[in-house]
Design goal:
Blueprint: H1 2-14, E1 24-31, E2 34-37, E3 41-43, E4 45-53, E5 62-65, E6 71-73, E7 82-89, E8 92-97, E9 109-115
Parallel strand pairs: 1-4, 3-9
Antiparallel strand pairs: 1-2, 4-7, 5-6, 5-8, 8-9
Length: about 120
Amino acid sequence: MRAAALLVALLALAVPASAAAPPARVQVVAREFSLSLSRPSVKAGPAIVELANFGEDPHDLRLQRVGGTKVYGTPILQPGTVYDLSLRLLPGRYRLWCSLGNHRALGMAATLVVKQ
């Protein structure tokens, strides 16, 4: 019994209580002319939004929280390339779009929900 209690105590010391959870991840696939999300929602906090350009044209990604003023973005990606955007997301709905030419009007837009 004492050995089990000692083991539990040692394990508690090995994992700090303040260990940060890994960032939420979502992949956004860009094609002509659509954006597809790997999941419809993520938890608030640190996040990695990965843009993967599986299309034939260059694309980028812009994100803006509905009601917010800050716009996050990626560089322009050539076909077949990937970019990880690290940011901190507040709870709410985020509009995502490609800002090149008329890509947004052609359907390159999506919504990501960020939950508390």
